[in-house]
Amino acid sequence: MSQMMAVPVSYYVGLSAVIFFIGVAGVLVRRNPLIMLMSIELMFNAANLLFMAFARAWLHNAGHIFAFLVITVAAAEAAIGLAIVVTVFRSAKHVDVDDVALMKG
Amino acid sequence: MTINVTNADWNAVAPIIIVAITGLLVLLLDLLSPKNISRYAAILLGAAGMIVAGVVASLAYWSPAYVAFGGAFIQSGFGIVFQLIILIAGIGSLILVRPPVQNERIAGATALMLWGTCGAMLMAGAGNLMVVFLGLELLSLALYCLCGLADRPSSRESALKYLILSSTASGFMLYGMALLFGASGSVAFADLANPALASSALLWVGGGLFLVGIAFKLSLVPFHAWSPDVYEGAPLPVTAFMSVATKAGTLAVFARFMYAALPAGTADRLLLPIWIVAAISMIAGNVGMLAQHDLKRLIAYSGIAQVGYILTALAGGTHLGLRYAIYYLAAYTFMNLGAFAIATTMSGDREEGSHLANYRGYGRRNPVGAALMTFFLLAMAGLPPTAGFLGKILILSSSVGAGYAWLGVVLIIGTAISLYAYAKVVRAMYQRDEHVHAFEGHAPAPLAWASAAICFVVIIVMTFYPYTPSNVLPIVK
Question: Of B41, B126, B353, B396, which residue is most buried, by most CB within 10 angstroms?
Fold first, then answer.
């Protein structure tokens, strides 16, 4: 057991927290919708890492299944997200969410 | 652990499967028919599927709760009531689909709405975090597409905004779920209610992030900025669907989390931020409503406040509070669908008449429509002859009884502010106006009129025969 868990689970939690906050910062700071979508994927993958680490720590395979589910959902989300970005920016030269501001209030 | 899947398990999810298959059927018929499927055929088939699903779901209402698929899905009175509300929202908004959603997109729109309904229904019955996430994403992915359905820039803009913001919120929620999994070693709600977890840091951080996701989906105040823009840009029926189904599904998840998944003694502390945010929402939603000139934006802000009212009923975690919250949610569903139905009758081929300027002189052009709209708005404001008034009285009584009287006080203040905003719409309708604001291609909308009439009757019935579902606790066996 100690051989298997050579890396303590807290390291995984720390790493995934760093990845998660890089993702959050990316959504907040970057104005390019493609990079924002990539940052969202980063948030999802940080959660995936956490699921895998906890699945190992608890010896419970629900974490593995959850990670597969998240990968599937993230793929669907990326497909729909890219389609929406294309329809919005089809005629635009630059891809910048600040240009998409018809509605405010 | 092996899970034996029996027929009873499939019966528990039968309503969801029926709705999903109806969506496929609509797409298939569209493919097989020489031209596109006609608007009425798609809508009536979709509505029929949802009605069948509702009947199947309600058959199990009085039978004891059943835990299906090893705890993933729970068939109980609680879940069934929420599923019925979601199905009503699905039917009530599906029959409003008409131009400017083009006829060649009708099959896709119908299917997406059905699948979104599936997602919300899954959330209502979810017994573990995995199914919550699956239902939430199924609903959200369908809604991203639906928002961009109308062929105008504002619709596409609303799809983009909803996509980015809602996905970010999903990310927060998912990370919270991962931490909750780490805290309990299980994804089931029931396993979170373990007293040993009361001091677990993972539970507190995970629960907090989970609630951030919930607050976003409910558009509570620090996370509400998306809702007016998205509501305004999305086509009318989609706005109607979003304003009810998303909230009903998320409220079901929240109630299950709050009533069944928290270690004893932690609910008061862990959920306190939610009550504070609900109080701020009641004030900020109603104040924000004052400045709006578009019916959809106005209803978005109204929705922010209305969710605050429903959460007020839940505060304290009493059985009565849950029953009253469901009653108010049902009333809110019908008044929202009614208001959107009337708004739909005014929309033209290219444009949706949701700007308040378009309502000037409506009272003279269409006295019945104006009277119905006034009735629905009064119900939202919570004035006496409506279910909205009764619902608010019930919420007040339960919040005072549960020791959250301060939330009740905020509710009364919020209601007082909201009266002016709703009156603004009514005043616009009965204003004298020489200009005629009819749009080109102002097609008759019999289904929308029928929907408005049904909503009116149901609200009247709910007022005089208030039924609050008594079979909703315990939520998780």
Answer: B126
* Buried b / exposed e along B105-133 (16+ C-beta atoms within 10 A): ebbbbbbbbbbbbbbbbbbbbbbbbbbbb
Which among B338, B296, B302 has a CA at the least distance from the CA of B95? Answer: B338
Q: Which residues of B touch A53 (CB under 8 A)?
A: 182
Structural domains of chain A in order of their starting residue, each with its CATH number? 10-101 (1.10.287.3510)
B182/A105 touch (CB, cutoff 8 Å), yes or no: no
d(CA B146, CA B142): 6
**For B403-443, how does the pLDDT look when each residue is reduced to its tens digit (9 = 90+)?**
888 999 999 999 999 999 999 889 888 887 666 555 544 56
Which pLDDT score is estimated for B477?
45
Decide if B426 is inside a domain: yes
- Distance (Å, whole) CA B181 – CA B379: 42
- Does B355 map to a domain? yes
Angle, alpha carbons B168-B173-B179 (nearest 5°): 130
Verify whether the Cβ–Cβ distance B156 to A37 is below 8 Å: no
Q: Please name the member of A40, A50, A80 whose beta carbon is closest to the beta carbon of B182.
A: A50
B175·A84 Cβ contact <8 A: no
User: Does the ipTM exceed 0.95?
Assistant: no
Contacts of B174 in chain A (CB under 8 A): 43-44, 47, 70
Domain range for B384 = 7-464
Q: Which residues of B touch A101 (CB under 8 A)?
A: 157
Cβ separation B172–A43 shorter than 8 A: yes
CB contact under 8 A, B163 and A88: no
Q: Is A104 helix (H, G, I), strand (E, B) or coil?
A: coil
The Cα–Cα gap between B203 and B266 comes to: 10
Count of the separate structural domains present in chain B: 1
Q: Please give, rounded to a whole number of angstroms, the shortest distance from the CA of A28 to a CA of chain B.
A: 10
Assess if residue B472 is contained within a domain. no
**Is residue B476, in this structure, part of any structural domain at all?**
no
Q: How far is A67 from chain B (nearest CA, A)?
A: 10
How many Å apart are CA B267 and CA B319, to the nearest integer? Answer: 15
